[in-house]
């Protein structure tokens, strides 16, 4: 019997309906007469899932004792003995109770498949082994139960069970997933909208990659060479010339017009390496295509049109973008060109776009790698052997008669020796001198420049031809060997350069020092100027050589664009070294630009920080001072009134109100003065480590007693905040929540730890805010709905968010399950909590 087939229902999180979909499929198969049994399905007290089990045959479970308790597990032996056609096995990543035959449930499934039983199972995306770190960074929870990716990838069918985060949270709030006592904790932690959206994206991308891999496998197995336009893939052919940037941008525009468009830029170089494009230009084009969301590919091929078409068909491309030829008119006598050949050979399933550009008919202009020259001593010895060697050999052979054939072989060996030592021209000289000596001394009539026997004429001609051919081959082999060694050295240098880019090394001085050491120079400097008439300035310099202020003062200068140049002193470099040096120069320019962008980003961040603090300061002055001042004024006016006789208790209460208001003003003014100093740059934020329970209770002084329930566990890690800013932010959030909460429904202020952050949630049961208005409520002078004019000027939430961001935190609004609004204040924890806080994702959960 053959191996069974595996079908998996994949979901982004518990509750999306994987088990329900699996049971629905089982009912459909039973109705068709398929022998289908439930090997193990856990309904977790979900009524709809439990109902779906009715009418399906269930294999009796096996109960195992572990640590004083009994736990149900799938009875693998019973299922194998029953030998159904299809078995339903829930929770593929489940860890079996110790004492089971296998440690993991997916291993049980492997045994069923090996026995010829088809299996239908379920798994969540967070249980895939390769995604463990990603899921932990998103949710703060490390998944202990995982399944190897290969097990899921080997499945015959993987079906995605999808549900939007909003719909899943509604199901959770209605009690369709967990028990009511676990709903609030789950919604506040694991089942937050951001978590669910990120997990959903992971699931969709994983399934999309598998679909793409399956399509590639199918095309390979069925030898499908035709293009299947399932999505637009644009291949842009590059030559390394300046027109490549135009082609890349045109390809990106074409990709944007199609759904899921993808750009693949490809540069094809010949295998002999004798011609190549500018490394600087290719580096610029690689950066451009990656910035536009595409990919860069380097392919080796001697037949460029064929290699380009093979690449396009291999990636299932739909269009090819090429530039108009840069060849001049007379060069077309050598052939139609790459563009015309590709267009002719592309076939009906591949569109070819020929794009005009400014370099049309201006000539290729690409650098050609010259053959490496042999050393001087070798050339001298080669000429000595080639010119002086034949007369010496003739003098030696004059005393010995070996015959014409042997004499020719000895002269031919001398020619080969000249080629090995000095290259082509000494070998040709040796062949010419040797043929003359053979004619004069060894072919009748002797000692004359004529040849009597025609056969000897043929022999000498063959000797010259063979000598020239052997000399050419030996010379070419020697030059190619030298060239290969040089190219290997260049590739190692470029590999290091690429590695430094991937590692994110952005030190300009370090890169210049690497250039100086690589080429053995005394100094290296990067010069730039603002315009063609502006003076040159030095952006970076290393080495002890003479300083240069202009590129023309250096021994070697490599231009980078119009207003930048890499200048080196020490010696004059050969032309072939400039190709690698151009790559270093381009990278130096990129490093300099990156450093300046980072500096500008830092300045912009500092300006934004100052603006945020300034805005919060002004808002606090106009908003937070009003309430205590109004209370103090009202109390003083009442005490000064002569129309009312106040009792001692009333006078004491009014004086207490004045004192409380004054204390509140004193505390607030102190914070505002500190913030004004921050805004002027005379002091930095007073960020320190503090416990939340030291600050949050102080923020509740302005709300009625009993209107807030506080839940701040003592086990929470400390947070890195400015206590004054945090107190003001919390006071505004709590006052806003109390303002909109109905009577008898206290506001909940709860805190929890998630990975390296701490969340403070202010939960009210008021009317709530629709999604489209959640962003506007944080803008200054915004009052949501029909709030009365006396309810404030609409700055409380804007102030709170400004304070939160000043402390490197965030403040967001979410819906409260059952109605209302929840403000989520996220702060940086002082240290990572030793045990991640997880209440929403038990180790064993069915969907």
Automatic annotation (TrEMBL):
Annotated membrane-spanning segments are 380-402, 409-437, 457-478
Membrane topology note: Multi-pass membrane protein
User: Would I find Glycosyltransferase among this entry's keywords?
Assistant: no
**Which InterPro entries does the UniProt entry name for this protein?**
HATPase_C_sf, HATPase_dom, His_kinase_dom, HisK_dim/P_dom, HisK_dim/P_sf, Histidine_kinase_KdpD, KdpD_sf, KdpD_TM
Give the highest taxon in the source lineage: Bacteria
Q: Where in the cell is it found?
A: Cell membrane; Membrane
Q: What is its EC number?
A: 2.7.13.3
Q: What is its main location?
A: membrane
Record-level Gene Ontology MF annotations: kinase activity
Q: Which Gene3D superfamilies match?
A: 1.10.287.130, Backbone structure of the membrane domain of e. Coli histidine kinase receptor kdpd, Histidine kinase-like ATPase, C-terminal domain, HUPs, P-loop containing nucleotide triphosphate hydrolases
**Keywords of this protein's UniProt record, alphabetized?**
ATP-binding, Kinase, Membrane, Nucleotide-binding, Phosphoprotein, Transferase, Transmembrane, Transmembrane helix, Two-component regulatory system
Q: Which reaction does it catalyse?
A: ATP + protein L-histidine = ADP + protein N-phospho-L-histidine
Domain (Histidine kinase) ranges: 620-831
Q: What class of enzyme is it?
A: transferase
Q: What is this protein called?
A: histidine kinase
| Species whose genome carries this gene | Streptomyces venetus
Upper classification of the source organism reads:
Bacteria, Bacillati, Actinomycetota, Actinomycetes, Kitasatosporales
């Amino acid at each position: 019997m053959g191996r069974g087939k595996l079908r998996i229902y994949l979901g982004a999180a518990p509750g999306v309906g994987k088990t329900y979909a699996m049971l629905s499929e089982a009912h459909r198969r039973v109705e068709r007469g398929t022998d289908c049994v439930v090997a193990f399905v856990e309904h977790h007290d979900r009524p709809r899932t439990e109902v779906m089990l009715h009418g399906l045959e269930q294999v009796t479970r096996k109960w195992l004792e572990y640590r004083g308790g009994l736990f149900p597990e799938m009875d693998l032996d019973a299922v194998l003995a029953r030998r159904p056609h299809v078995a339903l096995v829930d929770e593929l990543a489940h860890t079996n109770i110790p004492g089971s035959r296998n440690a993991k449930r997916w291993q049980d499934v492997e045994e069923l498949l090996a026995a010829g039983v088809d299996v239908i199972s379920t798994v969540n995306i967070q249980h895939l082994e390769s995604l463990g770190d990603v899921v932990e960074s998103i949710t703060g929870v490390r998944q202990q139960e995982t399944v190897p990716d290969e097990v899921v990838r080997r499945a015959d069918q993987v079906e995605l069970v999808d549900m939007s985060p909003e719909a899943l949270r509604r199901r959770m709030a209605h009690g369709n997933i967990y028990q009511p006592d676990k709903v609030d904790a789950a919604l506040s932690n694991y089942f937050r909208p951001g978590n669910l959206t990120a997990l959903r994206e992971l699931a969709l991308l994983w399934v999309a990659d598998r679909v793409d891999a399956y399509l590639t496998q199918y095309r390979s197995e069925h030898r499908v060479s035709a293009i299947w336009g399932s999505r637009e893939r644009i291949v842009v052919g590059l030559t390394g010339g300046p027109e490549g940037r135009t082609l890349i941008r045109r390809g990106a525009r074409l990709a944007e017009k199609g759904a899921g468009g993808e750009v693949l830029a490809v540069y094809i170089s010949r295998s002999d390496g004798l011609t190549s494009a500018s490394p600087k230009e290719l580096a610029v084009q690689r950066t451009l295509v990656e910035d536009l969301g595409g990919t860069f590919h380097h392919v080796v091929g001697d037949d460029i049109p064929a290699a380009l078409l093979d690449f396009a068909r291999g990636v299932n491309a739909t269009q090819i973008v090429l530039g108009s030829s840069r060849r001049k008119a007379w060069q077309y006598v050598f052939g139609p060109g790459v563009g015309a050949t590709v267009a002719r050979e592309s076939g009906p399933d591949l569109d070819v776009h020929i794009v005009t550009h400014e370099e049309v008919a201006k000539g290729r202009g690409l650098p050609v790698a010259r053959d490496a020259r042999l050393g001087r001593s070798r050339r001298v010895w080669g000429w000595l052997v080639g010119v002086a060697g034949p007369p010496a050999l003739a003098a030696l052979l004059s005393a010995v008669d070996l015959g014409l054939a042997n004499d020719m072989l000895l002269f031919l060996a001398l020619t080969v020796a000249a080629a090995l030592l000095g290259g082509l021209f000494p070998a040709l000289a040796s062949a010419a001198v040797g043929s003359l000596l053979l004619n004069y001394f060894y072919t009748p009539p002797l000692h004359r420049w004529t040849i009597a026997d025609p056969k000897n004429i043929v022999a000498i001609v063959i000797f010259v031809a063979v000598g020239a051919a052997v000399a050419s081959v030996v010379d070419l082999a020697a030059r190619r060997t030298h060239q290969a060694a040089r190219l290997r050295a260049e590739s190692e240098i470029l590999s290091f350069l690429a590695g430094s880019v991937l590692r994110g090394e952005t030190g300009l001085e370090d890169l210049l020092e690497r250039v100086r050491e690589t080429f053995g120079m005394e100094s290296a400097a990067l010069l730039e100027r603002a315009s063609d008439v502006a003076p040159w300035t030095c952006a970076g310099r290393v080495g002890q050589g003479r300083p240069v202020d202009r590129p023309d003062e250096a021994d070697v200068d490599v231009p980078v664009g119009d207003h930048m140049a890499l200048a080196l002193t020490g010696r004059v470099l050969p032309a072939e070294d400039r190709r690698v040096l151009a790559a270093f120069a381009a990278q130096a320019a990129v490093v300099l630009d990156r450093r300046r962008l980072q500096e500008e980003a830092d300045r912009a961040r500092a300006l934004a920080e100052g603006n945020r603090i300034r805005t919060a300061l002004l808002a606090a002055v106009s908003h937070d001072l009003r309430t205590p001042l109004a209370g103090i004024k009202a109390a003083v006016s009442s005490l000064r009134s002569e129309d009312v006789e106040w009792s001692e208790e009333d006078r004491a209460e009014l004086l207490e109100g004045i004192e409380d208001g004054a204390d509140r003003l004193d505390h607030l003014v102190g914070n505002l003065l500190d913030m004004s100093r921050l805004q002027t740059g005379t002091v930095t934020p007073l960020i320190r480590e503090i416990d939340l329970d030291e600050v949050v209770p102080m923020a509740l002084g302005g709300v009625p007693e009993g209107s807030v329930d506080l839940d701040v566990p003592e086990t929470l890690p400390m947070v890195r905040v400015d206590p004054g800013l945090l107190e003001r932010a919390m006071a505004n959030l709590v006052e806003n929540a109390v303002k909109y909460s109905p009577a008898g429904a206290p506001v909940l202020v709860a805190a929890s730890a998630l990975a390296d952050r701490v969340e403070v949630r202010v939960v009210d049961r008021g009317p709530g805010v629709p999604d489209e208005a959640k962003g506007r409520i944080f803008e200054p002078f915004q009052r949501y709905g029909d709030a009365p004019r006396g309810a404030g000027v609409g700055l409380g939430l804007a102030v709170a968010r400004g304070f939160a961001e000043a402390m490197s935190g965030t403040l967001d609004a979410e819906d409260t399950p059952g109605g209302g609004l929840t403000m989520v204040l996220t702060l940086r924890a002082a240290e990572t909590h030793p045990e991640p806080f997880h209440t929403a994702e038990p180790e064993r959960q069915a969907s």
